[in-house]
Amino acid sequence: MKFSKILATGSYLPEKVLTNQDLEKMVETTDEWITERTGIKTRHIAANEETTCDMAYQAALKAIAMADIDVNQIDLIIVGTSTPDAVMPSTACYLQEKLGIKVTSGAFDLQAACSGFIYALNTADCYIKTEQAKTALVIGVDKLSKIIDYTDRGTCILFGDGAGAVILQASDEAGVLGSKIYADGSYTSILECGGAVNQGQVMGNPYVTMDGQAVFKFAVRALSNVAKDLAESVKVDLGGIDWMVPHQANIRIIESTAKMLKLPLDKVVVTVDRHGNTSAASIPLALDEAVRDGRIKRGDLILLEGVGAGFAWGASLIRF
Ligand SMILES: CC(C)(COP(=O)(O)OP(=O)(O)OC[C@H]1O[C@@H](n2cnc3c(N)ncnc32)[C@H](O)[C@@H]1OP(=O)(O)O)[C@@H](O)C(=O)NCCC(=O)NCCS
């Protein structure tokens, strides 16, 4: 049976940085409050004309360059996003056109909010294991700033924009050791952006609404449980993990999860202080950072895990 292996990573952050001090001028908040409750200091915000596809393209180019492959080898594109550029076609098809390639195993978007990358990675892994694809471009990207209400201090302090990418390729050695994805639609109301286009008008609230405390509690429980379930099913001792790369929502969620999994914080990749919550992009962004600065090395055992609106959550264990 074939495995899939991460050949390369890439990421992109928009140029504009939004600091806590900037937010102090926009809503009633303080740098101290944001830092203490979330660990976030800055986040990047895409320019008005910069699209989700533009960010995905930049991240993809970096991953393709690191992989040192001919771009035409890519036969599958999966884009995890909840902020696509259009209702249709998919961001993946726009990206395919921008890359100037034809694919033989499909190009599509996948919506699992902040777990979009974990869902996309798992889907690409299944395509490769079943020999429906050989080389997949897997992206997590979001331009959350377009659905954030910058007068709502409960949400606008949290989110940022960005993109992350991996090239996943068929290999005789693992690779992706296993993944688990879950969803529970009974939690839709604690985190949602319910607006939709209907007969030329936006119906419902086009901005993100959230019950912060409910999300916090759900996230810690889901992230620690899914890691334990996955480790048990692939027979890996969580104590042997070299790096955990969690979804970057809040430093307190990350710390609580690490504590429940008995993982020391120096084995956890943290970017939330500089990126904020970039939704589907946060895991591949953090992964790329740790690969490029040399923390994550070939052969390391990595736990990726994410949770977000739906609720949808999941984890992957990877021999890098
Ligand atoms: C949003 C979050 C930071 C709020 O922190 P919290 O400790 O739960 O704070 P609370 O919501 O209990 O609010 C406490 C007080 O701070 C106030 N507050 C809320 N946002 C504030 C802000 N940006 N600045 C200052 N005060 C703020 C509240 O109004 C409340 O005031 P009150 O006590 O007078 O009513 C936290 O709940 C969180 O991070 N949740 C998870 C969110 C998340 O990760 N979402 C994405 C998941 S993918």
Describe the structure in brief.
The protein is an alpha+beta fold. It has helices spanning 20-24, 31-38, 52-67, 91-99, 116-129, 153-156, 212-233, 251-260, 272-275, 282-292, and strands spanning 3-12, 16-19, 42-45, 76-80, 107-110, 135-143, 161-171, 176-183, 191-192, 196-198, 201-203, 209-210, 243-246, 301-308, 312-319. A 5-stranded mixed sheet has the order 1-7-6-4-5, sandwiched between helices. It has a 4-stranded mixed sheet with strand order 8-15-14-13, with helices on both faces. A two-stranded antiparallel sheet has the order 2-3.
* Shape descriptor: globular
Low-confidence region ranges: none
Strand adjacency order, main sheet: 1-7-6-4-5
Small molecules in complex: coenzyme A
Q: Percent of residues in beta strands?
A: 25-35%
Portion in helices: 25-40%
Number of domains: 2
